[in-house]
Amino acid sequence: MNVAEPIYTGPTPGSPEQVIPIIAELRRLYPQAACSLDFTNPLELLVATQLSAQCTDERVNIVTKQLFKKYTSAADYATVSQEELEQDIKPTGFYRNKAKNLRATGQRIVDIYDGEVPHTMTDLLTLSGVARKTANVVLGNAFGIVEGFVVDTHVGRLVRRFQWTQQEDPVKVEQELMKIVPQKDWLDLSHLLIFHGRAICDARRPLCEQCTLTHLCPSAFKAQPKAVTKKPRATRAASS
Ligand code: SF4
Questions:
Q1: Is 163 in the pocket of ligand 1 (CB under 6 A)?
Q2: Which of 75, 110, 111, 163 is the most exposed place for a label (fewest CB within 10 A)?
Q3: pTM, full prediction
């Protein structure tokens, strides 16, 4: 016997009537939502975010606990040998590329920015291995400057399930989110979506039966697991 697919009867996807209650419910569910990378200054957050590409935040936090005792300035990353830094960050994966980017980032911060992490999107994007996601994380969480929306794999998946966008490219997803989400919610909402993605709205098996957003989610009880496609090694760590 065929089971009829549930029909969504909630507010129009992307309308304030759908977006605002989703944000409110996520705030209620995850009042503790925040950046889960450990850091005490902008340089540490920049490094941790670069290390988090294709790695869990938990593992990054384990590695940076020792790393941040040894490397306390941009000059430390600029002057360490490639081999030594590779060994220090190895458990985060893709360590050759990450070490190369961190050394180049340290060198540029020393040469151009007087040893201080820059705090504009334009300047951050000139650093090795830094794309809009990393720049948004650093600007929002270390400097309190919200210029954009952090789009990681959880954020992209959830907003497509809410039908706020059909885009796959994180930069295009970000542009669409900035049109429909109030700016005051950009920073928090990315944390909230990441928390909900980890807790309930899993990529392979969303727990819709436990989710309190079913009346607002067009994908409730019909989100399909996405086929996992492996990217070439060289590009996977470079999309931060
Ligand atoms: S209803 Fe299902 S698909 Fe929608 S947000 Fe909740 S868990 Fe995800």
A1: no
A2: 111
A3: 0.88
Nearest ligand 1 atom to the CA of 221 is 2
Tell me what pLDDT residue 226 has: 53
pLDDT digits (tens, 9 = 90+) for 54-74: 999 999 999 999 999 999 999
Scored b (16 or more CB within 10 A) or e, 88-97 reads bbeebbbbeb
Distance 179 CA to ligand 1 centre (A): 22
Q: On the CB side of 187, how many CA atoms lie within 13 Å of its CA?
A: 16
Q: What are phi and psi of 173, to 5 degrees?
A: -60, -45
DSSP 138-164: HHHHHS----S----HHHHHHHHHTTS
Q: Per DSSP, which regions of 41-146 are E strands?
A: none
Is 133 marked active-site?
A: yes
Complete domains list, the chain, with CATH: 16-32+149-216 (1.10.1670.10), 42-142 (1.10.340.30)
Instruction: For residue 179, indicate whether it is catalytic.
Output: no
